[in-house]
């Protein structure tokens, strides 16, 4: 369906820009020509599974769409993975080809205009569901990340459902901020603009502001927003905080925005409302790779801060007796790599509720629930997300299992311990007594390996074991 959409755009709007970037615009006709040439290379060399280890850019776009056209399983390789994790990805996925900026010994190099394309022989590939088109790997909480196998029908369903919901906004230019190896940006920053016929600005991650996997240059981000004037963005919660700072420092940098989707973690309603006071059209959504990345999304006209929006049309949500969310529908993954089909229903592991208007709210991970010494259950993610409103606090980790008072590890701006303490005291006044923070332990260790993954996600178990066990 995506391949036919590209062919249609190339035929009907041949000279309109499809992808833009540092090298200038590429039209729909030019993009389709690039994709056809790459698909031919993949087919002629009998490539079955292609691992793509590239920075954001036109070559990544071409490779992804060429895989769909040629029926090749595409395997994004996150650049923030360690070499050990990358080797595991290649081994576990049975990738028989690799597109990157550098070669590997013992792999055969092929002629390709979009990077260094290499091939190897794989005698007994790991079995996949017959309709698998993409294997996306989890964020790397272990040395052996899990591969999630996705079906084309699920990707098409999510893309079409989002297109229907967002088409009335009239978006004309999207800026890719997150790595394409992140399924959310891959789907919403490439497939969705393609479906809507929208221009996508694709820049190297450093041009957007990333400095490695866990640092971000706000001034570079402001410069990029100012220069490109995008109308839509996809952000994680921490980048929303930086977008808010950008709006405060340089209002002209964000004036063009019509829609900013935020996902990948819990967002406090107060932060959303604060962003909107500065004119930022920010809307929270929810999803997970196992469900094709997007399950629910707030949009203008159907929006309720404190929730992640209404589910995409065609999905069925069920909250079980333990308040855990289950999602059924065509978005369900084919299964984890090397395992049997997962069926049509996915246990998300997230604590959720659905209100009488159909809006979904996510409270936290079921496995992270803690019980205080007084028998009160609480989710640490709730408190940690509220702490995002504290300007001096960079990261907070809460622990209260079996304790009479919850303890917090605090990573704050250098030299701002007293400001962070005062801001957290003010936060406590807004929280119920059983989740309030007691003793504070100031440390920047919780922002470094081994306590965060290479893309900045908290390794909660490692933190708890080191600091509290």
Describe this structure in words.
With 469 residues, the protein is of the alpha/beta class. It folds into two domains: 1-365, Rossmann fold (3-Layer(aba) Sandwich); 369-468, 2-Layer Sandwich (GMP Synthetase, Chain A, domain 3). The protein is 32% helix and 24% strand. The protein is built from 13 helices and 26 strands. The strands form seven sheets. The protein has a five-stranded mixed beta sheet with strand order 4-3-5-7-6, covered by helices on one side. Strands 12-13-14-15-16 form a five-stranded mixed beta sheet, sandwiched between helices. A four-stranded mixed beta sheet has the order 2-1-11-10. Helix 2 (28-44) crosses helix 3 (58-70) and helix 8 (218-228) crosses helix 9 (237-249). The longest helix is centred in the first third of the chain and has 17 residues, at 28-44.
Keywords:
GMP Synthetase, Chain A, domain 3; alpha/beta; ligase activity, forming carbon-sulfur bonds; 2 domains; 32% helix; Rossmann fold; ANL_N_sf; 469 residues
Outline:
This protein is of the alpha/beta class and 469 residues long. The protein is built from 13 helices and 26 strands. The protein folds into two domains: 1-365, Rossmann fold (3-Layer(aba) Sandwich); 369-468, ANL, C-terminal domain (GMP Synthetase, Chain A, domain 3, 2-Layer Sandwich).
